[in-house]
Design a protein that fits this description.
By secondary structure, the protein is an alpha+beta fold. The protein is 38% helix and 24% strand. It has helices at residues 30-42, 80-89, 95-103, 113-130, and strands at 4-5, 11-13, 17-19, 45-55, 64-72, 76-79. Helix 1 (30-42) packs antiparallel against helix 2 (80-89). It is globular.
C-alpha cells in the first residue's frame, strides 16, 4: 500500500538546518487556520509517537516545544509539527497536501487498524530506503 507524505520544510542547509521557503504561503485568516489546525491535530490517527518534544527549528530560544507525533488518514502521512508551525508561524501545509485537506472539507477520518499499520510500515520502509 502506498501513502503520500506531507513535506514539512522546504529544504535543509548544513549551516542553518531546515527552513521554509519565502514563497511558502502563510495563513493569516484565523478561521482558515483553525480549520487546518483541527484537521492536522485531530484528524486521522496517530501511528507513531516519540517521547519528549523536538526543538523549534526556527527559534532555538523556544527550546523543545514541537510534538513528535506522526498521523495518517489512510491517504496522507503528516506530523503534528505541521500543526505547530501553522499555529505559531502561520505556515500553510505544502500545496498538494493543502489542496487535499480542502477537498476533504477539512475532515479526516481515523483509518482502520490495518490501514494504520500499513502506514507505519510504509513510513519505516521509506526511512530505511533513505539510509
Amino acid at each position: 500500500m502506498e501513502f503520500k507524505r506531507a513535506r514539512l520544510f522546504d529544504g535543509v542547509t548544513p549551516e542553518s538546518g531546515p527552513y521554509f521557503d519565502e514563497s511558502r504561503p502563510r495563513i493569516a485568516d484565523q478561521a482558515e487556520r483553525d480549520r487546518l489546525l483541527e484537521f492536522l491535530s485531530h484528524g486521522g490517527a496517530a501511528i507513531e509517537r516519540a517521547a519528549g518534544l523536538a526543538p523549534d527549528q526556527l527559534d532555538a530560544s523556544k527550546g523543545k516545544v514541537v510534538p513528535i507525533v506522526t498521523m495518517t488518514d489512510g491517504v496522507w502521512i503528516w506530523t503534528l509539527a505541521h500543526a505547530y508551525y501553522l499555529e505559531h508561524y502561520g505556515f500553510a501545509p505544502d500545496s498538494e497536501f493543502y489542496e487535499y485537506i480542502k477537498s476533504r472539507d477539512y475532515r479526516a477520518d481515523g483509518p482502520e487498524e490495518e490501514i494504520q499499520s500499513a502506514a507505519l510500515e510504509f513510513l519505516r520502509r521509506s526511512r530505511t530506503a533513505r539510509r
